[in-house]
Amino acid sequence: MSEPVVDYGLCIGCGACVDFCPEVFELRDEKAWVIETATCDSCDCEEIITLCPVDAIEILG
């Protein structure tokens, strides 16, 4: 199973990942957080990586 990881040092809180996959991401304290990895197969994780304007998301697995 693929698991997204957010680099909080890079994240600017734009919300692109939340808009694309709200089942997996949410914004907290102006940063993206992974809230549920069990549903991660519901979206295209590779597209999440390309949507992030600062390359703060990596997919493990």
Report what the structure shows.
With 61 residues, this protein is an alpha+beta fold. The protein has a single domain (3-60), classed as Alpha-Beta Plaits. Helices cover 20% and strands 26% of the residues. The chain contains two helices and four strands; from the N terminus they run βαββαβ. It has helices at 16-20, 45-51, and strands spanning 3-6, 25-28, 31-34, 57-60. The chain has a two-stranded antiparallel sheet. The chain is globular and about 25 Å long. The model has no long low-confidence stretch (mean pLDDT 88).
> Globular, elongated, flat, extended or rod-shaped: what is the shape?
globular
Based on DSSP secondary structure assignment, what is the total number of beta strands? 4
**Structurally, how many domains make up the residues?**
1
Rounded to an integer, what's the Rg over CA atoms?
Answer: 10 Å
Rounded to the nearest angstrom, the distance between the terminal CA atoms is 6 Å
CATH architecture: 2-Layer Sandwich
CATH topology: Alpha-Beta Plaits
Q: Can you write the helix and strand succession as a string?
A: EHEEHE
Beta-strand content = 25-35%
CATH class: Alpha Beta
The total count of helices amounts to 2
Structural class: alpha+beta
Unreliable sequence segments: none
Arithmetic mean pLDDT: 88
Largest sheet entry: 2 strands, antiparallel
How are the strands of the largest sheet arranged? Answer: 1-4
The level of helicity is: 10-25%
